[in-house]
Automatic annotation (TrEMBL):
One Pfam match: p450
Protein name: Cytochrome P450
Keywords, sorted A to Z: Endoplasmic reticulum, Heme, Iron, Metal-binding, Microsome, Monooxygenase, Oxidoreductase
Residues annotated as binding heme: 433
Database matches in SUPFAM superfamilies: Cytochrome P450
Subcellular location: Endoplasmic reticulum membrane; Microsome membrane
Amino acid sequence: MYFFLFCIVTLVLMWFITHLHNIYNHLKEFPAPPIVPVLGHVFDYVDPKKALSILTNNLVNHGGVIRQYIGPRKPSLATANRDFLQFLCRHSKYIGKAKYYRYLKPWLGEGLLTSDGHQWLSRRKALTSSFTQSGVLRNFVGVFEEKSDQLIKEINDLSSDKANVHLIMKRFTLDVFCETAMRVSLSSLANSADSNYAISIESVCEVIQNRMTSFMKNFDFFFQFSSDCTREKKNLAVIDGMLHKIIKAKHQERRQIGNAKERKDMLDLMMEVDIEGKTLSSSELRAHVNSFTFAGYDTTSSAMSLVLYEIAENPSIQEKLLEEQMQIFSGKLNNASVTYEILHKMAYLDMVIKETLRLHTIVPCIGKRATKDLQYEGKTVPAMLNINICIHAFHHNPNYFPEPDKFNPERFADETKIDPFAYIPFGVKPRQCLGKEFAMLEMKCALSKIIRNFQVVKVPDFQLDLRPKLVLFSANGIWVGFKKRSVTDENV
Ligand code: HEM
């Protein structure tokens, strides 16, 4: 018995040592910035304000694919090289998610964002085809508009002439999401007080962020004894409880009226999905709704807030946006309603959003790993090694975007000049964001209304304090001022 155990432990150890040896050997084929013994590149990432620019410089100065050592953690590769990215996309069959996505699993289960292989592929195909059906997004525009009107009212009622718009936008995006995904009226905007659901989502996101940055909580063993683990469990119970009730009610509704509903929400569409002759189970539905919430809530709210910040900083760009709105709505600014077609006419707003997503890359890095050794330009990319695709560094690489720190929407005037392997705010194929079109329409609807109703102005002395987490955030909020446009604007 002991001999048998000894053999198993020895075999596991041998496998582990060979595996690490293989990784370290192959990694040497890639360049690396100067390495401090034992600590590796830890000092590059100590100051979160500088971490992204240091990583970007390292990548640009060393050819775009480098090895990284963060203390005793397993080493990884980082990239901001479009050829290498194209190579990874070509081999997508052998590319899975980086290991740290497991921090999301207690919440997102085997949803789209966290699953891999056949399970991911079959669900992605089914969900993509139901979300790209004509009319689905068109139907959501009504909700975007209704919630944008509430947003305008909230800004109108502000007691101060300036606001941390990120907080307002978070409530707006969550309201939009709950209404479009489940037809649940959270009304966190109107009530201003956050619901338990919203508070729980915020709290779970915080725990996930803490795990990303803490060495000890990185290990499941230590995490389970932490207060964060208790907090996560408590809040997941709230989220699950709410979704459970909604899904049960939906099942009942479908038993009564079948598929005959005119205005379908995301959950209706998910319930109609047919994967190899089966529908999604209740726990799968919860995993997908949670994945959509996580993927769409903080990202869209940060993006919209940063657009407002940039147009406050750049009044001439804001003027041009207003002109476009006046042209589209023939001078009738304040109360005109939008449609799916009208939102597609807002070409300059589209350019401003795209440039904001470049300059302030909302998802700064995504993580992949190869499931087998791959050959790239005579070097081996070892299996099971995390590969950090540093989207921020792609977007700030002067070889792809000259004067990368300048806010210049004109870069997007001719989309054919944009390299699809260098501009990747919504991730890379085949795992590109499923909510891209949804997010663009939602942002355009709200921003168009804000621009038509208010002049967005800079708050003196306010400077963004941007830090990379799963989603880019500003530690001191995102502050802008609002001045109501006079009624005469309608007659300009
Ligand atoms: C400005 C807003 C948004 C940005 C910048 C953004 C960005 C991204 C990025 C970079 C990824 C790839 C993640 C990875 O590979 O690890 C992704 C995936 C995803 N996003 Fe978004 N996203 C946004 C809004 C949304 C919205 C509104 C939704 C849902 C309604 C959504 C749903 C998803 C889903 C389901 C995935 C996983 C796709 C898959 O793995 O098959 N996103 N997003």
